[in-house]
Write a structure and sequence with these properties.
The complex is a heterodimer of chains A (372) and B (418). With 372 residues, chain A is α+β, with helices and mostly antiparallel strands. Chain A has eleven helices and nine strands. In chain A, the strands form two sheets. In chain A, strands 1, 2, 3, 4, 5, 6 and 7 form a seven-stranded mixed β-sheet that branches. Helices cover 45% and strands 13% of the residues of chain B. Chain B contains 13 helices and eight strands. In chain B, α6 runs antiparallel to α7 and α11 packs antiparallel against α13. Chain B is globular. The chains are: A alpha+beta (372), B alpha+beta (418). The interface between A and B is large, with 51 and 58 residues.
């Protein structure tokens, strides 16, 4: 499998793009963000039923079409373009890869078919309130009661799409170290609290766990390794999402710069505006190269993933921030209004920079993984 | 940590990402075998191109002759013109094998990547038969005569004139930034042959022999000392230099379209190989930093990680270009064009030069190296990298090109000449 984009990938991308333009344009993201849960369950189910999107991250034996991150990344680019609210990143970026990495047949058979079918929304929670992103442990504790199984207590912060989730894979401290427990997110012992977010198109929740029944996923003590694997995958897909969103910003900037006249000519004829647009394009092209390579490496060159995943996430988030910030600037006053979409991309951009660790943290992580 | 790094570096290979096909892989096997037998041990670890006065000049020339003999020179040219007809993917494989073997790929430089393709695209059969073999053999070494003192990046603003006199062209004027003049036997230059025509319409593309001219015969090079202290460029004064009309490529007054071909090659050909040299410098700087105990400093680690991201971005984008070519797709349809690539590497190189010198600490203040001004390698890199954003069209010109040709933004109202 080469880096080249295949006809099948192009076709899927076109189909997903058309679907999202019809069913979930940015206008729809605005409607959803005004409610409690930024998630459209009908769109989610249709993505699975009509387009098979959720199945792309799930092995064939569990009802999916195979784990093909390179193809899935095209879906994420399209989702980023329209700021699709909902648990794409949580379910296909974090939860499904964690389940696949755990290699736990029971857990996979129990949860992956529902994910592939679009009937299960899943997420991962690990962060203790106020803890840095790379801290594992300290958020929750799991205890085993003889004959009754595991129970999880604690408070897990900033769970992606925690309110929409059916399943939350919680990284909790067990006797053998941090371990992953599958918890019914809507079940007993789980109190979910909406977190009002900087980026209102991406759902966040805090989960307060009080004796919530949990099922161990993978080996006890494997939490750190499983979370790392899932986070790398999430970073690769988040990188693709940021590239799509950044491209949408650049397209909006260019189209406005051609239309909007000042001093008797289109502002896009001013070199200052041209150069902003050109600089954004250079960054996006670079970020896209990184994102597509990282997605390819997930399937074809897994040894590279720990390096290229962090590199691609940082490059994508930086490119999106630049594109979104310049988009506000190029739109002038109108770009600073609530009615214009520019601020939604700016908020998504900052949130993507901060999510899982800011760019500085990612560069330091890259340095670690490069062995500098 | 060393383990993950070793594993990761070993995993960085072109083949899987590009899927070049069985023929290209067969070529790799053949070439690797040939290289392992013929690579000169005395050139291991020597970079290419060599600078003026390189201690390896003789060995590099001999290695060039060996490559020539075996048919590994100007390999991208069609076989009918003495090349090997290699695809861009196969050329990339070849570069990778040279890199793997640790010996430089001797090329014919600009003559190979710009002049030759221009002759192949626009020359007559007689011109091809005369000029191309001389490029391959190294008999014709070209310097570039595009830039002029008043024109800069506005290439078509040139003033050097060519007047037809019988079957010859008589050239007068001044060129500048003539790189590689000291080893050249030929100059490819643009001259204005029709002063009354529109800016781009009256220009001819001329291959001017310089060896048989020289002072008193119409051509004089005056070396320009650059900010590094070296004199890799010259001003060239042309005063009645004579050249047969046979040496005009693409027809009289038709030089602009030939130039566009040339520039396209010049701006595009680094896309797939630039990362190799930058990666070599990167790991050398990491060693410098480690030797000074700086790799524990988060600020240093952050800068190095940034640099590595840029190098990998170059590798990834080059690989994507090659993968598209190998899959039979037309990569020119992508927005990733020569201007994007040029901005990326040239601005990276400048920034990396600054990072490298900063790491030297107080040593950066002193000149204890081997350069003409006693500058060390990193000091030279820092200084010489500043030219990357200027030559071949400044970064600003590249941004205008991207804005207008890729993004379709309107031209500047006073943008005469574009």
């Amino acid at each position: 499998m080469s880096l080249a984009v295949t006809t099948e990938q192009e076709d899927l991308r076109t189909a997903v793009g058309r679907f999202l333009d019809a069913r979930s344009p940015v206008r729809r993201a605005r409607e959803l963000m005004a409610g409690e849960v930024p998630h459209d369950a009908d769109v989610w189910r249709a993505l699975a039923a009509d387009l098979g999107v959720q199945g792309i991250g799930v092995p064939g034996e569990y009802g999916g079409s195979g784990v093909d991150v390179q193809t899935l990344a095209h879906v994420f680019e399209e989702a980023g373009r329209v700021l699709l609210p909902g648990p794409l990143l949580a379910t296909l970026g974090l939860a499904a890869p964690l389940l696949v990495a755990a290699g736990d047949g029971d857990a996979q058979a129990r949860y992956l078919p529902g994910i592939a079918a679009g009937t299960t929304v899943a997420t991962v929670g690990w962060l203790a309130p106020g803890a840095p992103w790379d801290a594992v442990g300290g958020a929750a504790t799991a205890v085993r009661r003889p004959g009754a199984g595991w129970f999880v207590d604690g408070r897990v912060a900033l769970v992606l799409d925690g309110l929409a989730a059916d399943l939350c894979l919680v990284v909790a401290d067990a006797p053998a170290g941090p371990s992953v427990f599958a918890v019914d997110a809507a079940g007993p012992g789980v109190d979910r609290r909406r977190v009002r977010a900087l980026d209102p198109t991406r759902g966040l929740a805090d989960l307060v766990l009080d004796g919530a029944p949990g099922t161990l996923v993978g080996e006890e003590g494997a939490g750190r390794a499983l979370l790392d694997a899932a986070l790398d995958r999430a970073c690769v897909l988040l990188a693709a999402e940021t590239v799509g969103a950044a491209q949408a910003c650049l397209d909006a900037s260019v189209s406005y710069a051609m239309r909007r006249e000042q001093f008797g000519r289109p502002i896009g004829s001013f070199q200052a505006v041209k150069h902003k647009c050109a600089e954004v394009l250079v960054e996006i092209e670079g970020a896209r190269s990184c994102a597509r390579y990282a997605a390819w490496a997930c399937g074809a060159s897994p040894e590279e993933v720990p390096v290229v995943a962090v590199l691609a996430k940082a490059a994508g988030a930086e490119a999106l921030f630049r594109a979104a910030a310049e988009n506000v600037q190029i739109h002038g006053g109108i770009g600073f209004t609530w009615e214009h979409d520019a601020h939604l991309y700016l908020k998504r951009a900052k949130a993507c920079q901060v999510l899982f660790g800011d760019t500085r943290a990612f560069r330091l992580r890259l340095a670690d993984r490069l062995g500098l | 940590m060393t383990d993950s790094r070793t594993v990761y570096r070993a995993a960085r290979s072109t083949a899987a990402a590009v899927d070049p096909g069985p023929e290209a892989e067969e070529f790799r096997r053949e070439f690797r075998a040939w290289l392992s037998e013929h690579a000169p041990p005395e050139l291991r670890g020597v970079g290419w191109p060599a600078v003026q006065g390189s201690p390896h000049a003789a060995a590099l020339k001999a290695w060039g002759d060996v490559l020539c003999e075996a048919g590994y020179m100007c390999v991208a040219w069609p076989r009918e013109y003495g090349g090997r007809g290699l695809s861009p993917v196969e050329v990339a494989i070849m570069n990778e094998e040279f890199d793997r073997a640790g010996v430089p790929r001797v090329t014919r430089g600009r003559a190979e990547t710009t002049v030759g393709p221009a002759i192949i695209a626009h020359g007559t059969e007689e011109q091809k038969a005369y000029f191309l073999p001389r490029i391959i053999s190294g008999e014709h070494v070209y310097c570039q005569g595009f830039s002029e003192p008043e024109a800069g990046s506005d290439l078509a603003g040139l003033r050097t004139s060519g007047v037809v006199d019988g079957d010859e062209l008589v050239i007068s004027g001044q060129k500048v930034w003539t790189s590689g003049y000291y080893e050249s036997t030929m100059m490819f230059c643009l001259v204005r042959t029709d002063p009354d025509a529109a800016k781009h319409a009256g220009i001819s593309y001329v291959l001017l022999p310089v060896a048989e001219n020289g002072p008193g015969t119409g051509i004089e090079f005056r070396p320009i000392r650059q900010l590094t202290g070296r004199s890799g460029f010259a001003e060239t004064f042309l005063d009645g230099a004579r050249v047969p009309l046979f040496n005009v490529i693409g027809g009289l007054h038709q030089g602009w379209r030939v130039t566009v071909t040339t520039l396209g090659h010049e701006r595009g050909n680094r896309a797939t190989i630039a990362h190799v040299g930058y990666a070599r410098d990167f790991w050398a700087v990491v060693e410098e930093a480690r030797a000074r105990g700086l790799t524990d400093d988060p600020a240093v680690r952050e800068k190095l990680a940034w640099a590595w991201t840029q190098i990998e971005t170059m590798r990834f984008s080059g690989l994507q270009l090659l993968a598209a070519l190998a899959a039979g797709q037309d990569p020119s349809a992508r927005a990733e064009n020569g201007s994007v690539t040029k901005i990326r590497w040239s601005e990276y190189a400048s920034r990396f030069g600054e990072i490298a010198v900063d790491l030297l600490g107080p040593e950066a203040l002193t000149a204890g190296g081997t350069g003409e001004e006693g500058l060390g390698y990193w000091q030279e890199q820092f200084l010489s990298s500043r030219s990357g954003t200027i030559w071949g069209g400044t970064a600003e010109v590249q941004r205008n090109i991207i804005a207008e040709r890729v993004l379709g933004l309107p031209k500047e109202r006073k943008g005469a000449g574009r």
